[in-house]
């Protein structure tokens, strides 16, 4: 058990009017959770304190060699005013997998969960309630040794900040147009692709800019060796329904193991749908699109939950899916996952956890 000190903010902010759109990741609550690490002392000084700037030496290691990790999950307020987290155990397990990969000291899972509960509880009045809204939770760890040599840091800060967010897409489910990148790559097996760390995102920016300039909202990555097998989208995993079969790339060491991905697989299996986790080449997807058997494509991730894909662009080929509309299975997955998250559908899989 952590002994968490509570230092109440003296500058409480107005809570945003839910009738104005909440733009993802732009507004932060009154408080943040902070805990420090020092070699020999371990994680210590857990506190909930005012959300405010932090002070670091310009030589802090995180600024130079990128030793940092993050997570992303959400809290929801139900009709009867309970607060639910969605599968926080999965995020915590993944956080410690990331930590091990990039030499950050692990956080005991009970302590991690206690920290999430404490900060969400402290700022519970910030959880929006309009349909499609939630409180986005962003835990992260940064290396803070003032040192320019290359080695793992001996000191770290673990921080959790909170941001009230609206529906990812204003009109509800909205099909996205995706650019398939066949020049740059995001990650290779043995690298850090399966860790949730900033380095993967910095590697993706140039492609994202290129895709945006061409009128596409996201990038779909191919594997780093052959530029042939489908990996994932910027911050989402990807699913295809081809000729009645649900297919998603298997976790191969370079793909981020998404919690939403795992949840969609579990639901498809529960519903008795044929599902394959395997290698899938871009040629297979293109041929399915040509022959009319590419029935649905959607992305999965905490921010949007399910993102139907209406168009894929690969080199000079444009593949239209569902005439740019939403598939029945994409819609059913969205309704089911969000229904469970909001406590509106019975949680037979025990995915939600209440914050007291
Ligand atoms: C976080 C993330 C995802 C989605 O994971 P969820 O746990 O479903 O939110 C997918 N890909 C990348 C690269 C990510 O960082």
From TrEMBL:
Keywords: Amino-acid biosynthesis, Aminotransferase, Branched-chain amino acid biosynthesis, Pyridoxal phosphate, Transferase
Record keyword Cell inner membrane present: no
Catalytic activity: L-leucine + 2-oxoglutarate = 4-methyl-2-oxopentanoate + L-glutamate; L-valine + 2-oxoglutarate = 3-methyl-2-oxobutanoate + L-glutamate; L-isoleucine + 2-oxoglutarate = (S)-3-methyl-2-oxopentanoate + L-glutamate
CDD domains named in the record: BCAT_beta_family
UniProt modified residues of type N6-(pyridoxal phosphate)lysine: 196
Keyword Transferase attached: yes
Top-level division of the source organism's lineage: Bacteria
EC code: 2.6.1.42
PANTHER family per record: BRANCHED-CHAIN-AMINO-ACID AMINOTRANSFERASE (PTHR11825:SF44), SUBGROUP IIII AMINOTRANSFERASE (PTHR11825)
Listed name of the protein: Branched-chain-amino-acid aminotransferase
The organism of origin for this protein: Lachnotalea glycerini
